[in-house]
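INTERNAL TRANSFER SHEET
From: sequence group
To: structure group
Subject: ComEC/Rec2 family competence protein

Please process the attached sequence and return the structure record in the designated field. Keep the field labels unchanged so the import script can parse them.
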Amino acid sequence: MAPTAVYLCCAFAIAGFFLASQSPLPVGWVFAGLVWAAIAIAGYPLLPRSGQRRFSFRIWLWAAIALYAAGFWFYLRLPTPSATDISRWADQGSGVLVGTISDRPRLQAQGQSFTLTAQTWSPNPSETALKLPPSQGLQGQVAVRLTAVAEGLQPGQTVVLEGELRSLQAPRNPAGFDRQRYLQRQSIFSEFRGQLLKEDNPPLWSLEPVRRRILAAFRQGLGSDQGSALAALSFGNGLARLPGTLPEDFLRCGLAHATAASGFQVALLLGLTLACCRSLSPRWQAAIGTLTLISFLGIAGSSASLLRAFLMGEVQLWALLRQRSPQTLPTLLLVATALLLWQPLWIEDLGFQFSFLATLGLVVSVQPITDRLDWLPPRLAVLIAVPLAATIWTLPLQLHAFGTLSPYAIPANVLVTPLLAILGIGGVWAGLLSLVWLPLGSVAAWLLGAPLWLLISIVSAIANLPGATWATGQIAMVVVLLCYLSYALLLTWPRLRRRWRSLAVALIAIVLLPGLAQAATQQEILFLSSDGPLAVVRDRGQVGLVCGASDRSLRWDLQPYLEQQGINQLDWVLQLSDRCTVQDQWPIRQIFSSQSLQPGQAIQWPNLKLQWLSRTPNLWQLSWQGEQWLWLFQRGSDRWSLRDLPPLPSQAWLWSESDRLPRGWLPSIQIKGWISGSTAPTSLQSSDASTRQPDGRTRHQAWRWTPNGSLQSAIAQTSRPGLL
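Return from structure group:
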């Protein structure tokens, strides 16, 4: 088979892996894969004549078969727990777990986390001797979170832990991070929370002392926070994480790639190595380059995106050794296909997806964009074309995964790319010097303090600009596919390039119009699961918020939903507690609280009426298209009786954060359905079963109510995302 045919089959196989990851069920790929293969075959006559001359129909047919087969390979490699997996013993109380640490421990806001390869599990701690017993046939990995930080832990070390083994929990809120799915794709089906009892001696050979020596040198020269920032920019998040609010600032500026060890760092490192070894023979250059890349891979970690960059660098060194010019696009396709054949689940890794698409954009789009910027100085044109090409190719995936856009991403990348190059190269040199002599590495890191300070200042300034992050709403996967199909047509169809402006307008309309249409018609109340009362009221483009939750809940429970729905401002907010600082995070047109209102006062909108009925107990009434809601936000409400309250509707829905209702309430009010903060109020538990349905509790999951009188779970029941 000709090389071009192999490259085409690789491209179709990558598409097959991706499409299979979006199929709801493994059985669904039997039919969905045939449909996609048929669409690919039917598209052959639409190819321009040059494309048909380059790829015969027979080659195109083989490529469609590769697409179909890749999907089956993806499903064959889906992990499932074995009969002896540690997850079989989950949810049976506390115990002692013995195992070997599989990855580098990471600091968390409340303790420390790492992955553990299980060896033994003893449910009764009192019967377990605190020594390191041999394996008893137990298999599987566990996601461990320690309540206290244990210094000195490293991969390969055997530890004894005491705590509780639990099953993985499904996400509680819509658009929330699906940790259960994320861990299951890594063959992890249970989690452990507890404390460290005993640790074995660390392994004799490990790169962990090297990592710690480099990090210690950086922190000694620049301080703890600045040193960690330099380590993250030089070696990626595998060595250290950005301190404080810097991760959020880099994300808001569209610079998340700066700390994701991938092609940027590998290209800088390999280019520097080859420049230093220019006087040596190609064989020595290839050997030193390979040793450098392997060392960097060992220090930074072996993520999917870094492995992709590493293999592409090795191909470039092989081409140097053979004195040939490497072809970047075929290399990218071959390397990506090889990695996915080895581990198909990497197609769901966002880091791998963004790395692949950004590299693809640089390969195929930088030169055309540079040609259109010929009125600028050549170096400036390239400096603009590189982030612009990467942004164009990663934007559809970004809108699908996060639903946000960084308007300042391109100018931010243009401004900081020289600084990132200086810090990347300088950080690697400082790390190398620290291995020779620690103070020497500290001095080298100190010399990088000025560019590091300038970079952080620029990023912080841009991140705090108005509109630094714009929520566009999460787009459907079918829209993502249409965008990339349009990109492919622009590259292969010369006639279409003349009308690229019309195509761009059409794509923008396809991306934005569905979300705008949904927002203009949607009517619902979403009760989010959080550490306090939290609900979003949506009425045909108007968005209100009832908030009594903490800042942590606003960040992890509310913000993902608002970004997914493309909500950038709130029309009104009912603030129930001083700990709810929502006004500091989103623009708000009107904000109401107990300080600004008096009992009996009502707030009127076109379709909604919100009235504060009573201060003690804290009771509100919402009227919406003939439906009535009673919101009770005070515990111990049974101290009051119905005589202490104003007249109430005869039928109503109930949202209660109290464990007991006012005396005499139920005989006079028909509760059509209820939402409770934890469990059903005692008086409701003894009522008729039809009154207590549906049984929704916001502490456990989110619930959605619509004016037609239905109360349903807000969490999708499908285990896999769909195209729509």
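Handover comment: DSSP finds 23 helices and 22 strands in the chain. The radius of gyration is 29 Å.
Transfer complete.
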